[in-house]
Amino acid sequence: MNAPMMRLHYFVLAIACLGIGPHVLAQQGGLAARPPMGWNSWNHFRNKVDDAAVRAQAEAMVSSGMRDAGYTYINIDDTWEGDRDANGNIQANSKFPDMKALADFVHSKGLKLGIYSSPGPKTCAKFEGSYGHELQDAKTYAAWGIDYLKYDLCGLRDQMKTAATPEAAHQIMVDAYKKMDDALRSTGRPIVYSLCQYGNDAVWEWGPSVGGNLWRTTGDISDKYTSMADIGFGQAGLARFAGPGHWNDPDMLEVGNGGMNADEYRTHMSLWAILAAPLLAGNDLSTMTPETIALLTNRDVIAVDQDAAGREGDRVSAEGPIEVWARPLADGSRAVGISSTGTNSH
Length: 346
Ligand code: GAL
Known about the structure:
This protein has twelve helices and 16 strands. By secondary structure, the chain is an alpha/beta fold. Helix 2 runs parallel beside helix 4 (99-108), helix 9 runs parallel beside helix 10 (262-274) and helix 10 runs parallel beside helix 12. The protein is globular and about 60 Å long. Residues 42, 77-78, 123-125, 152, 154, 196, 220 line the site of beta-D-galactopyranose (GAL).
């Protein structure tokens, strides 16, 4: 009789003093000196995000203890955008009656508000992008009190297709990202700049030159172990491109969305911490279970993610199904993760 196959997968995180000497702490202040922590609407709410949902997330971030554990940004993803007015100023659609009032509310909770746009004429969900309105949009965001912008390539791809060579297409993209960086800086408001172009064209090499504080290294995560593991364990080799103010972003968390079991979500959270990844929760914070809260607020894991040295971990060995990952920490110790993705029969 065939025994059922059970897949084992776990990622054990430990802090080990391996006798390496202490090194100079990264002293850089400024924006995103540590990997940004917060929440983003896309993974759970998709196009259903609205003013009430965002307020509920801000309240839950406080009442759950997430704010006190370090989570700060409440980020509205795609589908907030409305039409431009007669002067070309972007307006929110009817789901967000007053973006400035919403920002004031989020700020009153001791949190910060993020928003989303595209360098193309349209966003991925076919809403209004910033193409040709970069400075105007940056000024609007600053006037609303926005603290974080995710800038998603999508609609610019049509422009890039008109280029004569791949190099010219690449330049169109780089110029577009730099243009928004200049626009954001000109406002004088500190706005974290998150590049989202799915990790193409070795973005980790040029992301800092266009002012990126973080850049997506992959396509979209989904709430499945295979998606999370492919992305997370696929980050090997990128550590040297990350540091204070400029982080690799393997995409938002799926913890609490229901598609993985408790061990898989622990693997997700631990791996993201080793990777010095932004910790942007992607679940509905207003309905989460005590187990989800406990995982998202696990102080030991967060301490690894937010370590002051800002050095991303990397894979140090892979033998069969066993992978060992390690991250050097500011006090001279290392966080070590051991993963087994083998199969066992019972
Ligand atoms: C995708 C992006 C997602 C989400 C979505 C919104 O391109 O990778 O994270 O922002 O667009 O339409």
